[in-house]
Amino acid sequence: MLPYKSLIQLNRDSNVSLYVQLCNSFIQLISNGTLKPSDILPSTRVLSELTGISRNTVKVAYEELMSQGWAESVERKGIFVLSKLPELSDKRKHTSISHLEEKPDSFKWNNPFTEKFAVEDFQKAVLTIDDGFPDVRLTPVDLLMREYRSISKRFYGKNFLKYGHPKGSERLRMALCRYLSETRGLAVSPENIIITKGSQMGIYLATQLLLTSSDKIAVGVSNYRSADEIFKYSGAALLRIPVDEFGMDIDYLADTLKHQKIKAVYIIPHHHFPTTVTMSMERRLKLLKLAEEYCFAIIEDDYDFDFHYNNKPYIPLASIDHNQNVIYIGSITKTFAPALRIGFLISGSQFVNACASLRQLIDKQGDSLIEEAFASLYDTGEMERHYRKSIKIYRQRRDLFCEILETNFKDVITFKTPEGGMAVWSLFDKKINLIELANRAEKKGLKISDGTFYNNELFNPNGLRLGFAALNEREIEQSLSILRQII
């Protein structure tokens, strides 16, 4: 048996539950090759004695491990590493990733900076079913502004009115390092992070360094249109890969790679846009293995990881990427208040340095004071309290929204209740013209999408993302009543 007593280190002073820490420890052991597919795991009694935690805690950790697709229970035999997982090479010598440096053969990218040198308008007060935004009325703006004013009044706060580092506030980057490590198992240093004006800027920066007009990038048949437009702007060709209920079809991608060369893959593994599906763990691992084999980058857009309602969300690909192929992009304000524009990009330090150089050409730096204020909210735990409160409220709104859809729209709308995110992917009866529907809704005082944003050359589903998070219970009932009337 492996020396689990030394391999599994639990921090009882951490805010992260012991069962989550134990689950994440096993994920690391599997992803770095220490544990292989079909390996048996210690019994709850043995592991309880080795780690000093209760058998019930071990049992819950195993249940979480199985729910995430890493392990399976075999009757009368025990818990095993999932046999269907692809066997990963032993990466234990690379598991310390507190300061990422790319391996020379990880992936190729364009670096013109060898030398360092210094829509839609939703602001009008109209009843709206958006495509999945937070309710800004729940946002602790008063706390954020209090920190903003407090910092600006202090003697050292005046320094934040000067030009700062293009990577963004060091304090916010340090706060993100702690937060991402605790919530997503992602261990990086501030040098691996650049603060961006939302995830959109992160996608743009990565694209400009990765892609040229002779390159191809793999994207979903259904995909985030704004990302598609960025890739096209770079001159790259889009290679469409099917997306089903388990996310991007990685077996299809693998067959494609046998005769086509790509530079990168863009994925939204949590709550894929627009369909809200989540990529299975088996496919995530296969994708990482393909990236290592074919030396391409993975642009992982994880814009709303923080909102999951049923089980704990799968940890990002970046957290289990030991070959450093993943460029991880996230958003703070997409789940806080969209107009405040704070996101981040994480990768190897050289790639991030190049992103910072490019960023200076288009946007010298971010808002230092607002970044410092956000850092304070992370340091005091206010951000996590806001997320916990919002998750509880959004879950209730999701349930009510889906209950009404099931009761009043089952003849015209097909949908699946989403496990996370802030919108329901809804397929309308083909007889319903969504452009006309949106026009009629506007005349009744309801703003909805006409569906064209989700369409591309291969994808025309007659569907809408119906956002529930930004509407309270009364507004949900009112907006869906109007929608039912005009249908």
Can you describe this structure?
By secondary structure, the protein is α/β, with parallel strands linked by helices. It has three domains: 87 residues, Orthogonal Bundle (Arc Repressor Mutant, subunit A); 240 residues, Type I PLP-dependent aspartate aminotransferase-like (Major domain) (Aspartate Aminotransferase, domain 2), CATH 3.40.640.10; 103 residues, Aspartate Aminotransferase, domain 1 (Alpha-Beta Complex). The strands form five sheets. A seven-stranded mixed beta sheet has the order 4-12-11-10-9-5-6, sandwiched between helices. Helix 3 packs across helix 4.
Strand fraction band? 5-15%
Major beta-sheet overview? 7 strands, mixed
Helix content: 25-40%
Radius of gyration: 23 Å
Number of domains: 3
Strand order of the largest sheet: 4-12-11-10-9-5-6
CATH architecture of the largest domain: 3-Layer(aba) Sandwich
Q: What gap, in angstroms, lies between the N and C termini? A: 63 Å
Pairing-aware structural class of the strands and helices?
Answer: alpha/beta
Oligomer classification: single chain
Q: Categorize the overall geometry.
A: globular
Mean pLDDT: 90
The CATH superfamily of the largest domain is known as Type I PLP-dependent aspartate aminotransferase-like (Major domain)
Query: What's the count of strands?
Result: 16
What is the CATH class designation of the largest domain? Alpha Beta
Uncertain ranges: 93-97
- What would the CATH topology of the largest domain be? Aspartate Aminotransferase, domain 2
Number of helices: 15
